[in-house]
Amino acid sequence: MPSLDVNDTTLHYEDEGAGPALLFLHGWGTSGRTWGAQLPDFTRDHRVVTVDWRGCGRSARPVRGNTIAGVVSDLVALIGALRLDRPVVIGSSIGGSFATELGVRRPELIAGVVPVGAPGYWPSTQARAQAELVAGLRRDRAGTVAGWVPGWYAPGTAPALIDWTVRQILDSGVYIDEHQATADGYDPRPTLPGLQVPIHYIHGELDTAIPLEVARTCAALTPGAAVSVIAGAGHMPHQELPDRFNAALRAALTPMAPAARATA
Prior knowledge:
Layout: E1 3-6, E2 9-16, E3 21-25, H1 39-42, E4 47-52, H2 68-81, E5 88-92, H3 94-105, E6 112-116, H4 127-139, H5 141-148, H6 159-171, H7 177-182, E7 200-204, H8 212-221, E8 226-230, H9 237-240, H10 242-253, H11 257-262
Parallel strand pairs: 3-4, 3-5, 5-6, 7-8
Antiparallel strand pairs: 1-2, 2-4
Helix pairs in contact: 2-3, 4-5, 5-6
């Protein structure tokens, strides 16, 4: 099981395929396994790295560093240690925030960003809901997660997929709750006009966790940004409708490829 020691923690990752590099980041509490429907397709012509960020999946569960800055620092170290040549970074939910912040803070390291159902500024408008979520996680973690996660998915999603997501979150460390506790203080909108790497938002049409309007608002603030909408999908389109998602991701990657080759 490949792992990497960075910033006083240990990250599990998987690294397969050859070609332009892609770095996939999962959402809150899950793991790199959520990209299982993308691996067979994209490893055919890309180097694909998935990582369980700190506190999640098969990685360590440290008390400290469970912030956007902490995770971005881990990603910088990971890119360097694996010698990834300007990967495009694809991030689901809060993973999209990590990817965006990596583009803001270290644009020279990556070729582009693809946020998938990223929260953007939305939690900063939902302070009461965030406080209630954090209180629920502290009071009844299992019940709160089991009641919350089904709303991530569109109607008709297989119950087994929802149950698997719940299990992953409950298997992750409790210290990742700091991301939820501080989410209402994060708003990327002031930095987006100055983003120096290409960004393409992918969002589920039926996402009730993060409204589609969030992606459209963020894209409107970012020069050259685009939005692809996955019809019939909720917050996790890469799992719900992987064929549609994979096609949208390939289309999003096409204009980013020249940026990756320019410094090769």
